[in-house]
User: Fold this.
Amino acid sequence: MSPTSARAPRWISDLDPGSDPGGLAGAAAASRAFPLGGELEGALIVWSARPSRLALLRLARAARAGGPEIERARLDDAERRSRLGASHARRHLALLVSASAVLARTIDDWHPGLEALADEVVPLHADYFAVDILADDGSLQRVASAHVDPALARAARQPMVEPRSWGDDLSRLLRRGLPVLSRDEHSRLGPDAGGPDSDGRGSDGADAIAALHHRLDLDSWAVIPIGVRGSTMGSLSVGTVVPRRGLRPSDVETYEELAARCGLTLERVDLYRHSAANERRLHTLVDASPLAIIEIDPLGVLRSWNQAAVDLFRWTPATVSPALPPEASVTLAGLRVRLRGGHPVVADRMTVVRQADGAALSLSVAAAFVPGESQPAEDLVCILTDVTQRELLERELQQKQRMEALGRLAGGVAHDFNNLLTVIVGYSELLAGRLGEGDPSYPDVDAIRVAGRQAAAFTEQLLTISHNRRVEAGTVDLAQAVRNLEPVLRRLVGDDVVFVAGDRATGSIAIDEGRLEQVLLNLVVNADDAMPEGGTLTVTTGTVDGPDGPCVELVVRDTGVGMDPATLERCFDPFFTTKGRGHGTGLGLATVYGVIDQAGGDISVQSALGRGTVFRATFPRAEPSEVVAAAPAPDRARPRAGGDRRVLLVEDEGDVRAYARTVLDAAGFDVIEAGDGVEALELVSRMAELPSILVTDVLMPRMGGPDLASELTAGHPGLPVLYISGYVEDQRRDELLRDRPGARFLPKPFKPVELVRAVDDLLANVPARTAEGGR
Assistant:
């Protein structure tokens, strides 16, 4: 029957025997609906072996009272469930809040943070908690664990089984990011929850994990994957022990959220580690760079720098706030303007004065803006390259190239100019000898002679500057040479100039002493001219270490007006001078450069306007075995009395040839002259007897002197040869004398007595010609 089909109770006697509740066969039954708000909420059924109307009335009253009671009980149950749900939600929210606070403090190492998280979970929220991280080799590393039972805490620290021993179901579920639950929890959560197969067979991995958790006395447990960006990085394990209730679906959801937050923490730590590693690599690269790297804010304050910058500017630990020299601000401002114009990287050159020692530095600067996070970039990162030495080498190379060009020019000029000077000096000497000092015309002739000698000295100086004239070197103690010349140097400077000389342990150098004195005089005079209002001139010597060994150093320092960069670049150029017309030839410093370079030394200069000038010359230390001493001048050979005195004079310049013939004729020689080598061979071919000596120019048209000498001495090797020339390079001269032993070289211009002495000396050293003397 349907108990809710009628509202009035009535007895029914034809009960189905199968509905007999307690063996009341033949009893009557009555039912009464529970009314509540006009709706049927249930029915009250009574079986009685003695049905009566009074029982029906009582049944009706009981039914009317039962409806509200049932509703009251239902409301009480709903309220109880609501309170439990709110408490459970608050507990889960508190867990997530505290866990977030703990994980937020985890920056560079997840171990302390995850261990603190385990302490937050156990025992307040669970009885067991552990975090395993998947290593690169596929193994699981337990990084945090906690257990409510101290006796099982050690077992809880053991890692979970390695992934390769997990069953297929377990691996599949974790790869999919699904939790793995104990069998009880799996049945409680339903077939869609992660866990063993629905047919109850389970898997080897699940059995292994279940065995591990059984050893930990867990009643229920869950293994939840920790995933980051779709990849599983590890697992979070949580469980409860008897007699606590098992995990609920809401618990699993909470721990899945906690696992997600752990994954974000692991990702953040991993990103931080990668960022820190990249930053360390960058710092290592910057610090290992041989180039100075600095970062400058818009106010010009240094924010960071590397070791190369410390070495470049010679900052010390005592330097409170390292700063760039003030001169750099103009260049840096220009770089900022160009960068704002859209250039990603700009470069420039700047010259600054190092504050540590006052040295001038030439720097190449490459700059770019440091990217800003929100505001426009304003900080500059600059790479500074010290190009001081490179610029010095470039200037030295340019100087050498200019000197080589000057040498070629000087050599060409010297050849023709010395031919002219030979005539001027020669005839003025002859004329002065004829007139005598008492003649009224003698002063005029002497002036011509003196001017010719000065012109010859000027040509010789040009050849020395351009390295086209070799000077025989002797051993000179540099410090002693300065001391010997100090009285002269003091007289050269003005009364308002303080002269200071000093020397340290020094040594000898290989140089001609006269040329060294010329270097000192030129440098001191140049320094004195740079101090028109007075100052201090310091000349010091000492020993320094050079690239090839110890060197001897000469330093001349003044406190004068200094030089600007353009003047500094050209100070060693021949004929360059900053003095007014009629004051200096511009060859002083050029001569200094040439002499020092010929001696194997090096000279550098540092100067700035208003800061004075420093000339620093270094010479290789000369050991006694390395010094090439100048050969002593031979005693004048006396001409032979009598004998053959036939001279074959070959010279293409007619005036020079006429002058030489005049001199030789006056000395008693029989002169046969020719204009070049070809003409000389023709004359000799018609002579019955060879000349006693060949006096020939080196450079002539058609056939030069060396070829002529080879032709004439082919069958007569004893023929003396005197080469005369306006200019021949030292190397070429050495070759001529080496190829023909006994030959001599006489440079133009020469005096009459020098020509006669040279011829006499050669003839004096030749054995007397035999009687046949023929060809």
